[in-house]
Amino acid sequence: MVGAMIGDFVGSRFEFNNIKTKKFELFHEDCSLTDDSIMTLAVAEICQKGYIGDEDKIIDTLKKWGRKYPHAGYGGTFYHWVLGSNRLPYKSFGNGSAMRVSACGWYGKSEKEVKEYATNVTKVTHNHREGIKGAVVTAMSIYYARSGKSKEFLREYMECEYPEIKNLDYEELRRTYVHGPEICQVTLPQALYCFLISNSFEDCLRTTISIGGDCDTTSAISCAIAEAYYGIPEDILNEFYKRLPQDDFEMNEIISNFKKLKESLGK
Q1: Which of 82, 119, 156, 216 is most exposed, with minimal Cβ within 10 Å?
Q2: Is pLDDT at 256 greater than 90 in this prediction?
Q3: Which DSSP string do the residues of 61-95 spell out, in sequence order?
Q4: Cα separation, 162 vs 164, whole angstroms
Q5: Is the pTM higher than 0.70?
């Protein structure tokens, strides 16, 4: 979950100014938390407070965090949903379903539960099958990674869900990938591929940003999985924590609770 926030934070300054290289300063004054992180925190609160089976509380929590950070860079339709009075889903398959779901991969205690968690926090907005699929695949990848599954196991799972991963090439992506449609069908294959070819958390972060495109969201997804598989180096964690708003006690409590969960899981 924190991995998703770090991917979002570091990638934020390159979303509309792609860098196309792995050589860049990770933490910069132009970095910021965007909608990826804010909604990740909302889903984490839903998981921590046991709201997962209560659709009204799920909706209320997403809207609460959206209204707390109204200028975080939400997509147009979600912006009107999260800040308005509408409580109905709108058949979205935008990549927002996958960027916010990482906590479900940690708080679900079984494959069945992870899928249930991911589906429930997604279908209140992204009730298109591709939107739900993107969220479930992301959450399940995190669950498998934190459960000790091998990279080869994860590759087989990811390629089964998104066969186009097999045809991706890093150098080709770095040359040609642009900020196109922000949808699961585009974002997930690239994010999963970047995790698969990485050799550490930091390498996953740099690799994902270097291919360009919607790189704060792509990095939020890939680095959420990388956190579960590799862990996050202490120096990166400490640098990130120093840049969080210290006066947001809700945010800090959610992150503290997540740390305790990871400790209980031996992570």
Answers
A1: 156
A2: yes
A3: HHHHHHHHSTTS---HHHHHHHHSS--S-----BT
A4: 5
A5: yes
